[in-house]
Amino acid sequence: MRQGEISLAGLLALLSLYLMWKSTELPIGYISGRGPGGGFWPFWLSFGMLLSCVAIAWKWWRGLSPASVSDEPLMDGFGWRTVAHVGGGVVGFVALIPVISMYGAICVFLVYYLHFLGRHSWLLTLAVAILLPIGLFFFFEGAMYISMPQGLPFTQPFFDMMYDIIY
Amino acid sequence: MEVLSLIAGGVTTAVQPINLMLIVLGVTVGLFIGAMPGLGSVNGVAILLPVTFLVPPTSAIIFLAAIYYGAMYGGAISSVALGIPGASTAVATTFDGRPLALQGRASLALVTAALASFVGGTVATVFFSLFAPLLAEVALSFGPPEIFALMLLAFATFVGLGGDDIPKTIFSICFGLVLATVGFDTISGEPRLVLFDIQGFLRGIGFIVLAIGVYGIGEMLWTIEQTRGDVTTTNPKMTVKGLISDSKEAVRRGWKGTWIGSVLGFFVGVLPAAGATPGSLMAYGVAKMTSRTPEEYGKGSPDGVAAPEAANNSASTGSMLPMLTLGIPGSPTTAILLGGMVMWGLTPGPRLFIDESEFVWGLIGSFYISNVAAVVINLAFIPLFVWMLRMPFTILAPLIFVLSIIGGFAASRSMHDLWLIVIFGISAFFMRKFDYPLAPAVLAIVLGPIAEPTLRQSLLLSSGDPTIFFTRPIAAPIMVIALILIFLPALKLLRRKRQVTQD
Questions:
Q1: Which structural domain, as residue segments, surrounds residue A57?
Q2: In chain A, which residue's Cα lies nearest the Cα of B422?
Q3: In this predicted complex, what is the ipTM?
């Protein structure tokens, strides 16, 4: 945790410096007759972020924050595995959306999570993984008039059939 | 007495069968739309606006106002049950609502939210009925320096009263405010902070992207990792008797926050451009500051749920005031309502109360009826929302992820934003591990688009002289309170050191 605290502060300080540099693409000072330039607000806020990182590092050096005096690891093996499985599942879910449509990706993600991570029965898994996307389709496309990504052209027959039901 | 007879006339209009039916329908639809992460009152009102051409203008505005009310009640459901603030106005509700749900007391949190919302909405409607024209004048005296001072006060409550690591809190606030500047400079119209030259950033970063990332993904990952997937959010006794006992407890432990939120929320809501989000945050801050047990806040205090919920409902009613009396919308939803009124042939402004008296008082009457309908419908549905929490976490968690992603897309219609949600979520998880408070960042991204232009306009007004914030009669005291709150932790530390030296 101790090493992680200062590494994260360092990373965030670098982000602050990048944002300060990026803000200078617009004027950061006061322009007579026009007020503060477009870069003024983000530049000084990014500077505030940088100062906060310096304060975090100072507290770390003095051992004033809980993480700075902790010898515990950030996560144990189980924690890393859980985060990788769940976080990886969410990343895969979003990556699948442009391929098999929002509703297809929801179905695959639910099967992955409910059956493989949650160890639920196939019956429950399939019931939720099929009925929920259909319910969401009618809610978003039918009631709210919000179109979700439809994926590659091979999903079109499914959408044609569903739209026939709505309209 | 004249006001009373006008209110009575308004209530009579609101309880006509068609209007009553529209109120019940609107509140129910609004409740479910508000409970959905990514969707809020603005979606419901915008989508159903065309439907209102089928009925007279008075019935139409009553229906839309009922949706608005229902959605404000519904925002708390998402905050408590899923831990995701469905709208910016419900961010402060997660601070104590979610811990209560995790303690198995979701019904107490939901009942407290419902009752506080009812009181907040009703108190605001009474203020609205009695002081509408007078308050409209007060609201007009709030210029950019006063609004900026209010924004600073909202952030100061986090620094002074948050109880978190101060440098990390300040980092979080500044980070949220910087994220709000991504896209275009609203004054010069030039592209600004287009990070890594990715064109998707030209659209800016919306509140909902950060909120869903932080709460829908980051917080969920954190909960799963901390509890090893074995989360207890069950509430086995959800009976009528339980509901009554929760109601009693909500009144006993949440009355103070309710009153603070009801009064404060209304006055902040009345100010054009301020709205329900700063109102709910300030109410939370003030309730914590005046509490005898501030240490309970953030751990599941009913007062911590009541204050922001009363405030956001009160502010929603308050934000209708500048819309009706001045023609200035106080929030995106009231902007749509204003558009609707113009389409129905009405002209919002000072003469509306005289020229369209029946319309205005019918609307005010419907506020009273909508509030009653909303609290009854909300309480009736609480068992359903609590039942949702009884699901095994291995079912609830993927449902929350799915609602987060689909809700995130519904709000922005952009794959770029979905990837941002994932990046924010994973970053939030690691930042949370190192005790970075993330709620200030979420609120900062909401308040940033109000804070920046008001600061720049104020400095332009004073030719760059920052003393403008300390020389105006309304801005100065707000700024002084904000600065005291910002320096409060340092003052406490100095006092503690002095005591140690004396001992």
A1: 2-69
A2: A91
A3: 0.94
